[in-house]
Design goal:
The complex is a heterodimer. In chain A, about 0% of the residues lie in helices and about 50% in strands. By secondary structure, chain A is mainly β. The termini of chain A are far apart. The mean pLDDT of chain A is about 95. Chain B is mainly beta. Helices cover about 0% and strands about 50% of the residues of chain B. In chain B, strands 2, 4, 5, 6, 9, 10 and 11 form a seven-stranded mixed β-sheet that branches. A four-stranded antiparallel β-sheet of chain B has the order 1-3-8-7, with no helix packed on it. In chain B, strand 5 (about 45-50) and strand 6 (about 60) form a beta hairpin. The mean pLDDT of chain B is about 95. Classes of the chains: A mainly beta, B mainly beta. The interface of A and B includes residues 42 and 96 of A.
């Protein structure tokens, strides 16, 4: 199975800050990576697919980059609605696997 | 807009069975592969199973293989997960999720819509 490791596990930031979250795969997954945002008690919401493609309707504050084994989700100028937990997911091979999550909290 | 509504969760004893349902609306259900993903506080998100749009192709995580069965009724727009021989470690919120195509291949194995989840608790 491909292991997905996210860092940091928690990130404290202020409104207006730019932040980055890293996701590393235990083997190459090309660009088959998605990013989701989840708020407490809610389902995950798709933000990014194919490593850097922005899902329709998602704010351009969100961007993704990377390929192979290292990927980054960047949020420019954090807004109050962005404080949530973020997960990466590889879909290069089965079983599909998720990272452990990064909680972005208010400093 | 697509909507997914799960039901069927609840408290069940170890070794018991439960069937989850997920009713889809707002899109042509029969065109898309579907999946079940579960979430626990300790293990985060875990892909459980998926099924092609026609129902002929299924896949399972090793942790549930032989105990869970995914199926769908396209005439009813409903996805199912039959769970048997339940264990404490199956306790989780179970989400159904829609893929981007009729099968999970060609780079479409991610989900653009998720249900709100249904809680399954396995405990005596």
């Amino acid at each position: 199975d491909i292991q997905m490791t996210q860092s940091p596990s928690t990130l404290s930031a202020s409104v207006g800050d730019g932040v980055s979250i890293t996701c590393r795969a235990s083997q190459s997954i090309s660009r088959w990576l998605a990013w989701y945002q989840q708020k407490p008690g809610k389902a995950p919401k798709l933000l990014i697919y194919k490593a850097s493609s922005l899902e329709s309707g998602v704010s351009s504050r969100f961007s993704g980059s990377g390929s192979g084994t290292e990927f980054t989700l960047t949020i420019s100028s954090l807004q109050p609605d962005d404080f949530a937990t973020y997960y990466c997911q590889q879909y290069n091979s089965f079983p599909l696997t998720f990272g452990g999550g990064t909680k972005v909290e208010i400093k | 807009e697509a909507q997914l509504l799960e039901s069927g969760g609840g408290l069940v004893q170890p070794g018991g069975s439960l069937r989850l349902s997920c009713v889809a609306s707002g899109f042509t259900f029969s065109n898309y592969a579907m999946s079940w993903v579960r979430q626990t506080p300790g293990k985060g998100l875990e892909w459980v199973s998926q099924i092609t749009n026609g129902g002929s192709g299924t896949q399972y995580a090793d942790s549930v293989k032989g105990r869970f069965t995914i199926s769908r009724d396209n005439s009813k727009g409903t996805l199912y997960l039959q769970m048997s021989s339940l264990r404490a470690e199956d306790t989780a919120v179970y989400y159904c999720a829609k893929y981007l195509a009729g099968s999970c291949g060609g780079g479409y194995c991610y989900s653009d819509y998720w249900g709100q989840g249904t809680l399954v608790t396995v405990s005596s």
